[in-house]
Amino acid sequence: MSAFGVKVSMGNYISHSSVSAPVTNHTSPPGVSSPVELPPEIWREIAAVASAHSVLTLRQVSRNMHSTVDSLDQVNLNQINQDTHSTVDLYQSDGGVRSVTRDPATQGAMARDENISPALQEFFAHSNDANVRRHLARNPSLTSDARQEALAQDQDEWVRSRLAFNPSLSSEAAQQTLAQDQNAEIRAALANNPSLTSDARQKALAQDQDEWVRSNLAFNPSLSSDAAQQTLAQDQNTSVRRDLARNPSLSSEAAQQILAQDQDEWVRRDLARNPRLTSTVQQTLAQDQDEWVRSNLAGNPCLTSDAWQERLAQDQNAWVREALARNRSLTSEARQKRLARDQNTEVRRDLARNPSLTSTVQQILAQDQDVSVQRLLRKTFPTGR
Hints:
The protein is mainly alpha-helical. The chain is 48% helix and 6% strand. The chain has 22 helices and 6 strands. The protein has helices at residues 40-52, 104-111, 118-125, 130-137, 145-152, 157-165, 172-179, 184-191, 199-205, 211-218, 226-233, 238-246, 253-260, 265-272, 279-286, 291-298, 306-313, 318-326, 333-340, 345-352, 359-366, 371-380; strands at residues 5-7, 13-15, 56-58, 69-72, 88-93, 96-101. β5 and β6 form a beta hairpin. The protein is elongated, with a radius of gyration of 32 Å.
């Protein structure tokens, strides 16, 4: 076959010498063997090569077929075969050629290829096959606002759902459309999407009627709106408040204070582990009546205040003191000495495991009356300091 063309099924032929109209002549050029209709499996192989390279080159398509697909480059769009009966179309993008087979399975595979070109994205965004659009909607390479907005209004719910999950969903208009979707699952997917950074969208979803939507938003690491955080902190559903309490992006002082006084101890327990706790909220939780709350706070790496460490080091509950003893943020030698002399053996054992111990405190524990404390210390500091 000539290096200036490609054979497709039904006898269609595209030549570099073509000037404008789609080829409709089903007669092969002189010297070219009669075209054969290739099975979908072969076209999938072609599509795989086309997705990975800018130029499509397959000399031997199949050992059992006397057919070849030669190199094509710089084919103008007006030279593309538009015959509806052909098995394959050729679509130009990025100075190369992509193979767009009519086989739905292959189109789907290409639509989810992260190396897909913008031209092919546009092509598949208007596909009549909903499955192809679904694959494209979840592709992280889908960054065009226009294509995102088009898919956000797709009639197929699965298309909109997969778009709502897509971490590359950056279009404000598309997010707004999905935030108002009648399907709660789609709104919940959007609420969980880390690309949801708009204060307006976050505030709207924080008041969504579906608790699943609010819960997903409450735990979204991109939740930055103070207003949304305060709204969720007062949510009537406990699971929503717990998800917010665990969110490492919980930065609102007002929201933290609301959660620190929550009537549900599990909300306060989750909050006490949060790495973003403000000093004021730490003070509130350090005085909490629930021992688990105080224990969780004592083990929190964000607990760096000497005042709250000192208070927890004197806590009547041994679990609280044990958690503090394990905390690597416990760098104060005074606090370490207090725990090194604790009457509870488990407290001293946990302290011996702490790699933040000063050399002075190591010497104290090296002479501990309990041999297990000495053994744990040697394991933590095998060569000493």
